[in-house]
Amino acid sequence: MRSAGEPESWFGKMTLVPNGESFYPGASGSIVTNRLGVFQKHMDSILLGGTTILLDLPAGSTDCPDPDCRYNPSYDQFMGANGAICRSCRGKGKVWDHRETLYHCNRRWENEPIAKSLTGNEATEGGRINTNMVRVKTHISSYGDILKSTGATVDDIKVKLWQTPRKTGWNGQLFYVISWWEEANK
Q: To which H or E segment does residue 147 belong?
């Protein structure tokens, strides 16, 4: 019978086995913290030297730019100075704009199996991606825009977000976002 807190196995009490994990002599948290800037500097230079991803954001609206545009309750439309439907906003009172934003990124296109563990480590249909996928790494500031995006363009190819993006970094500091996109017009 095992006592409380002891792990159970087929062979009785489990033994903690040492591994080959070895760190530089004298390494400490302060050295890791000092290397954080070096890591960020090199990763940022990779992003700046890479390509870009153009994120399509939901349309935004602004008030009609025509100073003579006024609401006419009789017609339930916005009218211009001449009494006709306002040409600037087409009678809506607002102008809708397509919005997009551009981020530097590091990207990798592939269509390799990514879920071999789900299929017993075999590259079967269940573990295959049957479309062009792109893995994109961007600055952490892109996270909110990626979540709101309606699509994107990478290397002149329209893509759509495949799964929720993941924040990443080093030593507990989050500097970047990794997102997976699939070709939109397949």
A: helix 143-148
